[in-house]
Design a protein that fits this description.
Number of strands: 23
Order of helices and strands: HEHHHEEEHHHEEEEEEEEEEEEEEEEEEE
Number of helices: 7
Helix content: 10-25%
Radius of gyration: 24 Å
Oligomer: single chain
Shape: globular
Length: about 425
């Protein structure tokens, strides 16, 4: 359950949505690139009010990012798309803010007693549902990612599998009290509920109740099997314990992350939206496209990637052919990391040998015929051609009934 002080700061985390789906970012989590292109602006007053509400109780629970950087940062998230992946197959994601829900969330945050602010708001939907991917679909709509199209449900909904071949998965409201939840149903519980070990939704437990973990508690914190409030600023914490709000545990005391230009050793020392650069907590705009060698957080200029580490978070140039590598997504476009030589090499084309010496066929163009003699790359097959696996098809779908490549489709339940 999200802490209330960071509910709205979920806007800062560009790869997930509250109640949404994981996004297919590929690779090992390295950032793509950002760029301002006149995106979806939101009311600056709403952004300012969000930041002020989040920071209202910072004396007790810390701050994820102070003003004016907070407003600047949140606005930039709506101005710029995020590109995940590389080349022509990159996915562009854009975020939009439901200003009515944001307004209700702001009103709620401003009404919460600061003593309770760091625990969270497990029963208030608007804070969890104000951020969405542009194009996300609503209740009853198909959320199957077919024919290369990415689909996602709006925040607060789950994409529920039909468990039947050929029947579409659909977006559904989260499970209510006593309804099935968990992996067997593809549904999370609605706000104010938790999923029991028996995969049924139950009401969150009050403070001082017995608990197995923090997901069962209204306070979002379970200590020594009892639901309690999480520790606040300057209160004691253990090595394996978290603190409330935007605080973290350092030397067994809950402390606030360091602010801009303060001294740091790693980015973990800084406020959630700052990075440690040259031993100083540094602000990076979401729209920034830093060059090779410059500090990065969300992406780099074309031709470079951001490793997303807390110790060496600078843009690195993609690796050229015949140079040492550890993963294919670090190689220049059109090349892969050969597992035998540990160097970047050009993808094998249709008709070239594959499988031996780590050779790989060019993604989206060919597959390796491992049953051939010799093994070689074969061009991907068009719809209507015979297939034995989805990897052989341009559509990446082999119809089990006909054993032919086809566009993947589904029927609404």
């Amino acid at each position: 359950m999200k802490k209330l002080v960071t509910l709205a700061m979920g806007l800062l985390v560009a790869t997930t949505l509250a109640g949404g789906q994981c996004l297919p970012i590929g690779g090992d989590g390295d950032g793509g690139s950002n760029g301002s292109d006149g995106g979806s602006h939101v009311n600056p007053g709403t952004i300012t009010d969000l930041c002020n509400a989040m920071n209202r109780c910072s004396d007790r629970w810390g701050s994820a990012l102070t003003q004016p950087r907070c407003s600047q940062y949140l606005q930039s998230m709506f101005d710029c798309p995020l590109h995940l992946g590389a080349g022509s197959h990159a996915i562009e994601m854009r975020f939009e803010l439901d200003e009515a829900k944001a307004g209700a969330c702001i009103q709620h945050m401003n009404s919460v007693d600061c003593n309770d602010f760091g625990a969270g708001s497990p029963t208030f939907d608007d804070c969890n549902e104000m951020l969405n991917l542009v194009g996300a679909v609503g209740v009853g709509a198909s959320c199957d990612s077919t024919s290369g199209e990415f689909a996602a449900c709006r925040s607060g909904l789950d994409c529920v599998s039909s468990q039947t071949d050929g029947v579409c998965s659909v977006c559904m409201a989260k499970a209510q009290l006593s309804e099935a939840c968990g992996p067997t149903s593809d549904r999370d519980c609605a706000n104010g509920l938790y999923c029991t070990s028996g995969n049924v939704c139950a009401a969150l437990k009050d403070i001082n109740s017995i608990c197995a973990d923090e997901t069962e508690c209204k306070t979002t914190y379970c200590h020594a099997t009892i639901c309690t409030m999480p520790p606040a600023k300057n209160e004691a914490c253990g090595d394996n314990e978290r603190c409330g709000g935007a605080l973290h545990c350092a030397s067994n005391v809950c402390v606030e992350g360091k602010g801009e230009n303060e001294t740091c050793q790693t980015s973990d020392d800084c406020m959630e939206s700052l990075v440690c650069a040259d031993q100083k907590c540094t602000y990076l705009d979401y729209c920034a496209k830093p060059a090779v060698g410059q500090i990065c957080q969300f992406g780099c200029a074309d031709g470079a990637y951001c490793p997303m580490s807390s110790t060496d978070q600078v843009c690195n140039a993609y690796i050229a052919v015949n140079q040492a590598c550890t993963s294919s997504d670090r190689c220049t476009d059109g090349n892969y990391c050969n597992s035998s030589s540990d160097t970047c090499q050009p993808y094998a084309q249709a008709g070239d040998p594959c499988g031996s010496n780590g050779a790989q066929c060019k993604t989206y163009e060919a597959y390796c015929d491992y049953l051939g003699s010799p093994m070689q790359c074969v061009a991907l097959k068009a719809n209507g051609q015979d297939c034995s696996s989805l990897s052989q098809c341009q559509s990446y779908y082999c119809d089990d009934a006909t054993n032919k490549c086809a566009d993947e489709t589904c029927t609404m339940p």
